[in-house]
Write a structure and sequence with these properties.
alpha/beta, 233 residues, Glucose Oxidase, domain 1, three-stranded parallel beta sheet
Length: 233
């Protein structure tokens, strides 16, 4: 994995990459795209691309003491990492609707050590501050406050958004949702995604035509997919 590869992936929107993966990789899609409960709260920031660092947080259970040692350790690790990071946070508190994982203060700290955004099944707050920090947030929504924050670094992959995410997975997200890119296709994905852009531009030019019947359009689509090297597995 290189920074250059991640920068190339940032040039594409997430849905187009998902379409491309469906043609070039055998990994079932249910294993790599998150459900619609996790939404972009900062859509103006555009695609978010980075390597996942996972964590579990309880910010909703009443009582207890703050436990932030795991967070501090992760920030130290992030400082040493040479690639952009997406912080993927699973909430584990007793009141799921009250989970508030992050605000703009934490976002500033995370940004300073190379983290470009968060993906969480909890909530966040201070969205205007996140935008001014250029820190992307993909979450269930906004939640105004939290109980004592208790963080622990996950030692095993976490279940979030209906898929499993492990540290080191490549995350790609934009205003329409979040995917993790299967490692079996990440290296070839920029080149094939560029071909998908060309294929879709070519094919879409004919989809709205009224002088062609549907059977003809279907055949033309098959021919174009062959032309650009996309054959359904």
């Amino acid at each position: 994995m290189t920074k250059s590869l991640l920068e190339q992936l940032e040039e594409f929107d997430t849905a187009l990459l998902a379409n491309t993966i469906g043609y070039i990789d055998p990994t079932p899609p249910d294993q790599w795209y998150m459900g619609g409960t996790i939404q972009s709260l900062t859509p103006a920031l555009g695609p978010t691309v980075g390597v996942a660092a996972i964590c579990e947080v309880d910010s909703s259970t009443p009582g207890g003491e703050w436990e932030m040692d795991a967070y501090d350790r992760q920030l130290v690790e992030f400082e040493r990492f040479e690639l952009p990071i997406v912080w993927v946070v699973k909430t584990v508190g007793s009141r799921p609707d009250h989970e508030c994982v992050l605000g703009d203060g934490m976002a500033k700290s995370l940004t300073s050590v190379g983290c470009v955004g968060i993906v969480t099944d909890g909530g966040v707050r201070d969205v205007d501050g996140l935008l001014s920090t250029s820190f992307a947030a993909y979450a269930r929504g906004t939640v105004i406050h939290h109980s004592a924050m208790r963080m622990r670094q996950a030692t095993e992959p976490i279940e979030i958004g209906g898929i499993t995410v492990a540290s080191g997975d490549v995350i790609h997200a934009n205003k329409e949702g979040v995917i993790k890119i299967p490692p079996t296709c990440v290296e070839q994905l920029p080149e094939r995604a560029a071909a998908m852009v060309a294929y879709e531009h070519d094919n879409h030019a004919h989809l709205r035509r009224t002088d062609l019947d549907w059977a003809t359009k279907q055949q033309m689509a098959v021919e174009r997919r062959k032309k650009y090297g996309f054959v359904k597995r």
